[in-house]
## 1
Amino acid sequence: MSGFLSSSIGRKISMSLSAIFLMVFLLQHFVINFTSVFSEDLFNSISHFMGNNILIQFVMQPILILGVIFHFVMGFVLEIKNRNSRAVGYAEYDGSANSSWMSRNMIISGAAILAFIGLHFYDFWIPEITTKYIEGDTSGMINGNFRYYEELVHKFQPLWRVVLYCLSFILLSLHLLHGFASAFQSLGVPSMRNKIIKTIGNIYAIGIPLGFIFIALYHFAIH
Amino acid sequence: MNLTLKIWRQKSSKDKGGFVEYKIADISEHMSFLEMMDVLNEELITKGEEPVVFDHDCREGICGSCSMFINGEAHGPDRGVTTCQLHMRKFKDGDKITIEPFRAKAFPVIKDLMVDRSSFDRIQQAGGFISVNTSGNTTDANAILIPKEDADLAMDAATCIGCGACVATCKNSSAMLFVGAKVSQYALLPQGKVEGKERVKNMVAQMDLEGFGNCTNTGACEVECPKGISLDNIARMNRNYVGSIFGS
Amino acid sequence: MSVLNSNVPEGPLKDKWTNLKNHIDLVNPANKRNIDVIVIGTGLAGGSASATLAELGYNVKAFCYQDSPRRAHSIAAQGGINAAKNYQGDGDSIYRLFYDTVKGGDYRSREANVYRLAEVSANIIDQCVAQGVPFARDYGGQLDNRSFGGVLVSRTFYAKGQTGQQLLLGAYSAMNRQISRGKIQMHNRHEMLDVVLVNGKARGIIARNLETGEIERHSAHAVVIASGGYGNVYYLSTNAMGSNVTASWKIHKKGAFFANPCYTQIHPTCIPRSGDYQSKLTLMSESLRNDGRIWVPKSKEDAIAIREGRKKPTELSEDERDYYLERRYPAFGNLVPRDVASRAAKERCDAGYGVNATGEAVYLDFKAAIERYGKEQCQIHGHKNPSEKEIIAEGEKVIEAKYGNLFQMYEKIVDENPYKTPMMIYPATHYTMGGVWVDYNLMTTIEGCYCIGEANFSDHGANRLGASALMQGLADGYFVLPYTIGKYLSNEIRTGEISTDSPEFEKAEQEVKEKINFFVNNKGSHSVDHYHKQLGKIMWDKCGMSRNAADLKLAIAEIKALREDFWKNVLVPGGADTTNPELEKAGRVADFLELGELFAKDALNREESCGGHFREESVVQDGEQKGEALRNDEEFAYVSAWEYTGEPSDAILHKEELEFNDIELKQRSYK
């Protein structure tokens, strides 16, 4: 076990495990958000549950944050190492001849997603933590109603934010279009040319970000 | 056809090196790329200049010596071929062709387009073998039955010619297709399974030590590989590596 | 009595090797640690010998000019490796393999060596499988075999069309194991430029580091040459660009006799030359002749029209085609042995019927096979009244399954689709049966200097059978030399380390340096390739597939003149202290220019036709066999071993008479 995380394959595998964890999180996040489209009550009650459940708040949330940090830090560490493994670059390099843009630019899509997460934390997570743990208001209520749905709708009113969200989800989609199959490949499942895994990956990578975009546009449009 | 060649010239590993442009005329489309280089070199020699140094030997695509990065691709624009099998009919009259050495920290340039790929040898020495002495009384070859499918897959992995195109083309200079192919060949055969765990651990450790980058599954290596070595070999190596660390 | 002693052990043929092994002196393991062996070349013979000697405990110093042992040209062998395993139960045996090899070699090989080769052949397969060589298997998981080169049994083991590659990688992996243990010191990108003799024994070499240009001294208790054949004397051949005779030639000049240099195999199915810029020829597996029909146009007008691009081969009707092999050899047809097929192609092209722009190509046509297989497939699938198109589609599928990779390779090189238009082929130099003379123990006439694999002369006589080169290389390296070298080394246990400071090393190094300095300082006017191409043309035209006394005499004079010109006017750019491929080539071509002359001299001396050596003067005069090769066992059943005395033309001939006690000598007939 020692040295696993310093070996190339160990790092690959840790990247893919954290990626799969984040993809599972993303899926549940999407499902919960999607309820806001058809049921304000359902959305509110789930949100309240998630925001106040001890297991989720104090076990899952820290793991998630660590997972996000790990995935990003390791991603950057690997990128730097990979760049350093070619001291003199090519004058001409035709990457598009043999690989997809997505696969070659995970660091760009990844960095964009990181920036998005920053915005997202600023929009939702920091106010939420402030309300709950600094101001001590764990009721989840404002003016006698659950506040979650209102907050969500409120955030999607400015056009700039909706546009920014949409762009970020497009980049997330690009990240996932390569990342989904890549994660399984790294774990040892021959995936890169496997039709089934590729298809599931494409459905996931396009479907989930598209769903998020739909939610944002929906709330922007109807309110 | 007439061509302009932009070629990397570097006197030695210590020299900085740079591009030099050459014009070359009357190239037949039936020539191989290296025959075109021969014509250039013959011209340079007659002019009293030093010819361009490059690795080449069998010129039939099997020894793995030739190693040019042509117009942004390892072994040039054709698929399933080494540089020596690339023919000039893939180019047009008036083309400008950029020719660079295979580049990676683990493949330092020796001179011009010739690079040092001994890192591949060292990876093999770390475990790319089955420990059996020559005795003349190993078991009869047919005492070990091997399912045809496994034998064929092992053969597919074993066709790697060690040219280094995978490393050269990979944006990360990763050697995982090469190492994966060798690990796979033995992992697929019963003879190789005995030392399987140690082999994958040692070969991966040596690969890391040599300074190759990490694999991000772009798949470029598989596309540019002259022998079409499959990415599945990398997955198999990953699997075996995990098994060697965590398996009982 | 000849000075040559083949040291063949006494006793019945089948017991010779066993007896020798039982009684040979062995070296104590503790002493092996103190003994060094140099091995030049890391192909099948050198690689397997290095690995095995290191396993036994000797310190091996291995050298190759390539950047890795894995790139030796053994890697290019396609077809397979023979072994008398009789897995197919079709009547194969050690004796039959022995018999086929001697007969195939046209009775010009040493019986005892060939028998030993057949004996150890089965061990090779066991050893390679244990190493992880992925030979082809059948659905039951057992090893598959095919029939190869017109023999009557299926004894050829193969790994797709890359058998040489897989066997070499096996030997390379065995070497790697020993390199990692420190038992082999591997010197890549090093070329041996001379052997050093101390008191008449081979004690080391002078080598050039091809990367830095440094001249190095390396000492050992024995030197093994495994540097392959000299087919590149023809300039164009199926050999690798770097394949050379230098190591063999250097030991020849220091006292090792060179045997049968004129025995060369010209392989009939190579891709033809397309122009003067051609640097190398590519072989396609002989198996193509199993289904392809060879022809040229019947009329010269058609041949000219095709050469000029006015006509296509597919436009010629059956009546307008000359299937000359089927016409001349009705019994064997397109499957006649390599030498016969090659000569027949040359005869037609020389007569003006060649079909590509250079006039040196014949057609290999798969149309008939495609139609035959197509009809068969339609029948099998119950397809009544199939259309022409359907038949061809089915037939092409069968051909693709059998030869797909070869067809693809052809198309890449020639840019024509061989399914639709006939392939063009022409013979090319492929293998050299001649080489350094060795005794039964594989020792040359220099004490302590051994020669194995294609570099020696021993096992293939005047013609090599398909799938036998790999067998011989590995037999020598894995199973023969490691035993026989012990006989010599057992007397070396008290020698101690060999110093490289002796005057002998000093002198040898000085000579090597002088030659290198000459090359880099000679302000000549012609490149090395200029001379190599000219030499190749002389060899091909006058010492090629068909030879006669007048031409050979001319060749000797021309090569001599060319050599003199070379030493005056060769131009080698660049310096001595750096990577300099032109300098490497200069040294190699200098040796080819000497070998070429000896080659012609040997061919002139051998006034008979045998195997790959065809003398126009020695043919059957009349009867059914009229015009076919005629061997002369009365006068020429010997090995020609040449002793160097200063100039190739002054070489002294020593004869090793060949005795055949277990085999009856017969003339070959394929009519």
## 2
Amino acid sequence: MNNFTSQDVDLIVIGGGPAGLAAAISAKKNGAQNLIIIERNNWLGGILPQCIHDGFGLEIFHEPLTGPEYAQRYIDELKKLNIPYMLNSMALEITPDKKVFVASPEDLFCFQAKAIILAMGCRERTRGQIYIPGTRPAGVYTAGVAQNLINLKNMMVGKDVVILGSGDIGMIMARRLTLEGAKVHAIVEILSHTNGLPRNIQQCLIDYEIPLLLSHTVTEIQGINRVESIIISQVNEKLTSIKGKERKIKCDTLLLSIGLIPENDLSKTCGVKLSPVTRGAIVDENLETSVQGVFACGNVLHVHDVVDFVSLEAERAGKSASECILKEQRKEKRIHIEVGDGLSYVLPQYISRDTDLELSIRVLNPREDASIGFFDKDALLKAEKFRKVHPAQMIKIKLKKSETKNINTLRVEVLQK
Amino acid sequence: MKKEIICIVCPMGCHLNVEYAQKTVLSIGGNRCKLGLEYAEKESFNPERTLTTTVKVTNGHLPLVSVRTSKPVSKKLIFKTMALLSKVMVEAPILIGDKIVENLFDTKANIIATKNISFKKRST
């Protein structure tokens, strides 16, 4: 590594999307001086410039913004604060002693940092990851790639479309394709409930009379050069296709909106421990990973449904990182938060000191009139009621310092009636 | 008459139960905030949406600029607006908030840019 130009920084933020921008701004406001953002693309804002639909920013700016507008507010603030950033620059490796190797068009750099914020976002799952049988013709896209082609590059992806997966991106693309003149024959969802926000079912599907086929999946892709048709099938409760319940849909395009995976290849290079459930780092309430001084936030930590929550989480990571640079962190205890009945995950996974907490929680199944309880062994510390809980909607619950004062364990679960 | 609608104002997505007769709303239930009341009232008789789409750009760093209606417009105008915008071409540079089309079909809504597009002469 002799060819790398060495440079000392207090904080390096990896990724210039919504998480990286908010983290860097917050770190600077909280006193971090010598910091830099490393961004692989030639623009800031990550995925937001292609998310031209509105509904962003309600939580933070109290008005509905489109993706590009939301991103620009952070970019303007970043520039006002004179926070440096490098575009077209790829972080290659992080060492456990917090050296970050970066390849950029100007030079190869080795940054020695006091703290690192991981904000690399997530990637879309592809056809290969769910093993759809059939031929391998043109016309199979992930929803985000189709969105990029249509909204940024002025390239239409097809005329007769089927979408697999009812996540938000899938539904938003169903509307977008319809507006651009394509016929969306159906959104096919393997689960018995949709995976996106309720408002998108209304404004993307019901508004445009796009059929939503629940408990269905794509079992075969057909076509030689271009997609010619697909076979869909109804599935049973084990999510396997039912014989005799198949049907052919003629189409030239299949969009996949089948989930997002935090992109943690870089995190692994410095030994950050990952959760098999969130597929992101295991963190404490400061969003510090298992490697001291390395923090994670946004979709690289766990996949969010609303960008506002990414920004808010990133602000916390920025604050924690600046505290880590400016003063020794005092760790008083380390309590593992146990995930109980009815939940898929709780984040953070650890608490390290007495402080106010904000927990991000996802349930396993949709449910009405649910209560989520917090326990120290068998003692109920707190319960919070919800009229409706859904796996697609992340739940945020705050725990005051006083509520977790003398606990030795902490378990979160959906209470049985 | 009664109907259930999903509120689209925020990610919460409240299921609103609207009871109405002729041209008046009798009762609205299921909303968690007052924005839901306004939405339910409009949605019952004249549903409106903010349209977001793109418009072609010449000499820009991107070939398209993202745009939206400056306020929600009648759902009936959505495809008519798409047809209109398919013929519109704007020149870079463009700033967020620039008016691309004024007073869209006499609705007092404008089509405004939602992205900054910088000037870049294309070689092709």
## 3
Amino acid sequence: MIEMGRSLLFPSLRSGNATGVLLRAWTAFKSTSWATVASGFMEPVLYLLAMGMGMGALVGDVVGPDGNPMSYAAYIAPALLTTSAMNGAVYESTWNVFFKLRFGKIYQVMLQTPMGPMDIALGEVGWALLRGLAYGVAFMVVAFVMGLVTSLWALLMVPVALLVALGFAGFGMGITSYLTNFRQMDVVGFVMLPMFLFSATLYPITVYPEWIQWVVKVMPLWHGVELMRGLSIGYVTWGSLGHLAYFLVMAGVGLTLMTLRLRKLFLR
Amino acid sequence: MSDLPLTRPLTRESMASAAIRRGVLFYAETWIRYIRVYALSLGLVAVVQPLLYLVAMGVGLGALVRGDVAGVSYLRFVAPAIMVSTMTAAAMGEFSYNITGGFLWNKGFFAPNQTPIQPRQIAGGVIVACCLRFTIQCLIFWAMMVAFGAVDSALSLLSVPISLLCALAFGLPLMAYTAQMKREHGQLNLVQRFIVMPLSLFSGTYFLLETMPGYLQWIGWVSPIWHATQLARVVCFGLVEPGWLIVTHVAYLVALALLGWVLAMRFFERRLRD
Amino acid sequence: MTASPTVIHAADLMKVYGKLRAVDGINFEVREGESFGLLGPNGAGKSTTMRMIGGTLIRDGGTLEVLGLDPDKDGPLIRANLGVVPQQDYLDEELRVAENLTMYGRYFGLPYSYLRPKVAELLEFAKLTDRAKANVEELSGGMKRRLVIARGLINDPRILLLDEPTTGLDPQARHIVWDQLYRLKERGVTLIVTTHFMDEAEQLCERLIVMDNGQIKAEGRPMALIREYSTPEVLELRFGVGRNEELLPQLEGIGERHELLADRLLLYVRDGDAALSEVARRGITPLTSLVRRSSLEDVFLRLTGRSLIE
């Protein structure tokens, strides 16, 4: 048992028992929070119904990534899946982690066991990804039933959604480590809202002047949306690979940031 | 203890009667102090949020919309609606976790409860302070609409009290619900997901309710957001709405706010006196 | 005691939660300037009684008069005369230390011109002047409690209600709080204290009621209660796990009474040292022994057969 730590990366931060966190999350899920978790699935579906039907009637067809027209619902569906992956990951890694730290004191108890902060972080991220997986699959089923999925490539949207979530989760926890007051959580929403509104989610960014377009293209969500929209109709290009690379880098940087800030986050 | 005796400027009778008459304002002061701590971020939100929404939805999404909606440009159509839903979201923020916090987490309601102030006055103080915040936020939003050319009549200023009424019609029932919660294990998140979200998506904010299939239109009818949105459109660009419907909109909003008020008062009373 | 006016009068006071009679028909009186205690274990009904006095809990039966008024009807006027120090501090963590006092003063309608010097004075009293701008979270338990007491004094109350004033504090912090309370008493403030610490009751209270299960078991001055319900001294003996009861028959005849606790045996005697010699003379050697003065703990044990702290 004592030797266990040696074979691990970052032995001072972890015991290799991240499953403990998953187990707790699962137990809490079964007993109380299942409704909250299940409701997370509603959000993108409702958006799809409302905006697809309501706005669809006002907008008609739009130009898809391959230059061919597509229905408005089919246009926004991949964007909504991407956004919900982002929202889920950010919510879990900021608000939820912060809340558990400050009010629930759940981590304090866990840290009294051999578990280290990294176990907790990995466990939390793992749980967020599991949730993301469930949401992604459920959304794909709805999109398929609505006739919005037309390519086999679309199956890749689920793992890509997970990658999007991973990228945001690491960053989210890193940022949470800098927050001291839950009112500061507003800042998080403050970044997320414009990202959602401007990242080609509900309309193409070509309606804006070029400089705004470049700002949008720096933001992660745009890359996710573009990648997913291409996959949804089987339009895969070198650009898709670029978007993928963006998220791989983001996930790497995010997880590194999280690891570096772990002590600050859990051991203060 | 320093022994300089400070003369009490108020007799005990006048302390009690001051609290009975103006207790609501005394508690509102505390709530305003809370808000003051994050006034900067609130101010930023109040200015930037309408800006973002008007640019993104009014201009961006509007570029996709073919022709006019309800006889006006999409920007003019959607701006008053966004104002109403923004205020509803603000009400969701103020009347949910803050109330739970007052009873369950930092228990901020219990200290004033030991003083001559009464439970209803504590609830009232929260409402007064929030109304102040909402009004300022509404005025900023309205000024933004003017700057975007989304409204151009003096009558459109009525969208401020309409949005405020909507915030209360939605917020006070929510406050009543939160006030009776014995513990919080995610119910408010459920309210957000199962009530606020659907209400704001299916309340004809971005399109006319009539474009929805009939089996989804009822959501708009029960939603304070739809009623307030229609009213705001009437005053902002003269949306044509029959008189009886306008009366219905106002009556529904007032009724919801009153119901929430009565219940919130009752639950505060019960919670702090038992 | 000279005939100071009665400030609190309770008769058949009752509070029921479902089947639980939290306060079960109690009678007591408190006079102006007195320090009056409610001693009993957790759940005895002390805090419930306190909240009824402040009018923040509606009673279910009996009469209660505070300064001649009914708390259920004249709550605001009564609370204008009260200072309340609740068991859970109810400090506002979103406000700073001095702001906690100022805003609390505002709830009494006190103007800022009065509150500015008053808050400074109270911070001095609580020895927190240098913490005026600190966040409440940064204060230690003892500092928080001193701040709460200072907060309760913002309206110059005639009666100060203290619910478990030193629970959770370390011994040094307790003595600072007690010192504060003595000073208030000297200034003529009526103190009403609930506690489950017998030493606190002995230190602070001139007169007290012993409560258990919502009822009053005894009433009087601490020394008088000890004299009435106990012997002057107690001999405590430990024989190790399970052996205390075994040895009881051999101790027969020593002292007036005995109590068998989980970990020790108490012998109630006039002279503890003499009793201990008698134990040795009978050839019994305990693991440890202790002679001490009788306390209110012994009174409670005698009255209920249970300890105050469980």
## 4
Amino acid sequence: MLGGVAGGVARWMGMDPTLVRLGFVLAAIFSGFGIAVYIVMWLILPADGDTESIASRAVHDWRGIVLALSLVPLVVLTVALGTALGIGWVSGLAVPVGIGAGGAILLWRNVGSDERRLVAPLVRPLDRLGLTGRGSWRTLVVRALIGMVLVGGGAYLLSSNHATLRPLEGVGLVVAGAVVVFGPWWLRVARDLVDERQGRALAEERADMAARLHDSVLQTLALIQRRSDQPGQVVKLARAQERELRSWLFDGRAPGGAEDDDVMLSQAVHRIEREVEDLHEVAVEAVVVGDCGLDDELRSLVAAGREATVNAAKWSGAPVVSLFVEVEPDEVSMFVRDKGAGFDLENVGSDRRGVAQSILARVERHGGKAEVRTAPGEGTEVGLHMPRRKR
Amino acid sequence: MSRPRVFLVDDHGLFRAGVRAELGDAVEVVGEADDVEPAVELISERQPDVVLLDVHLPGGGGQRVVEAVREAHPHVRFLALSVSDAPEDVITVIRAGARGYVTKTISGPELVDAVIRVAAGDAVFSPRLAGFVLDAFAAEPGLVGAPPSFDPELDQLTQREREVLRLIARGYAYKEVASELSISVKTVESHVSAVLRKLQLSSRHQLTRWASERRLL
């Protein structure tokens, strides 16, 4: 379930994986060895489709091994104290927990990236312990001497069974000695784990960036190479890619992110730009001056503007359609202009007049105004105006 | 007027070759450079009429080229040519002294037209730059939070200048703007040059703040 160990063992022994899992859980509850065995098996068993186990990588990881070994004095100390005080379960648990923790450190340093997500919560308590510098040789010697005196004193007190000196004081001395001697080492272990994690975060960020560029830019370049015989398609792809990169670099929007709900007018206008460019092979040059939130009236204005832009793209034959939107205190205006064929307003085919009228009617229904200026050979400009609702 | 002598500054060789091909015989390309330092050196040596300048260069922004050349060779004119939509970049290079800004998607004949215009000392505004300027000068001075203006003439656009900029933003060429407003092309050019001057000289606090805020959006 965690490292997939139970499933692997079950398949190897030809048993039901649920039974094996149950076994591990019971073993973990009753002796603690269940956890240790699980983690060690996770290290040793290669994952599906992976030829080498994590352990075969871990044996080359000297730093990791040193880190794991730093737990040994802690385990020995705990066992000694547990025995001395006659608390059986403490010493009983110390060994499996120690093996488990050492195994967890090696796992953390050597697992693949998808497994790391699972291991992180196991290791996090260890790296919260803190950060500290390392000492020079002299402080090391001094520390060792003080530690030995403390431990020795504690051991003497414990073993002498002196009636007036209570064992608790001996325990205190032994613990203090152990902390003095091994404390910095343990702190270094913790700090190494923190460093490790920061390095990983950086590497993951880089991987994320590479993935994004791969999904967008490299894919597009590959597509362009394959369609190099269709210039229209190539231009379309290149423009779409350009827009996406721009919005990522300059506006901080994630490529391919969800953007179905435009809140601001400028977003809606740039969406017209994008979508019309994608559907019809023309360039749309959108310029937005000012910005404001969208309400029902402005949505209808945007819808009409979109229709006008699509019309220009479809019929005018011009390579560029200009889309200009200005937000003023009491009015929003939108102009869609092309330098294409134009048409005779009085004498157009019923389909095109229908479209023009639907644009005009839509805006007027919401209290706005619209005008169309065109003549054959002189391009077309549709102007749309919508009063702003007072707040 | 003879063919304008043009110098290209862009760090992409492929792009420089493309521009050279699009400009064709209408202009004389006297040199190319791919970074700030060689550009400054070669421009000083060859004295072109117009430098087509990329806003982004490896050794710093295009404005560094303008700043380094402007003092010693005031007759060399700059036209910014960029894919960058970031108002900050565009405003910076214009304020350094470039006489216009066009996007790299501009068509060949339009680019030639822009070069000739800049060589003649006029300003060239693409629809996008016109939109930037309208946006930057939009807030009326005297609004809450706006600092007092020390030079109202520099810090505000006239009604007529606004009209001209609006039409440019709507995709009108100078000639079309002129006929729309029933004025001469020369008058349109002088309005645009006046706007360029305001853009370069205005101490308007909003201008920089606006540009950097737009970038953060």
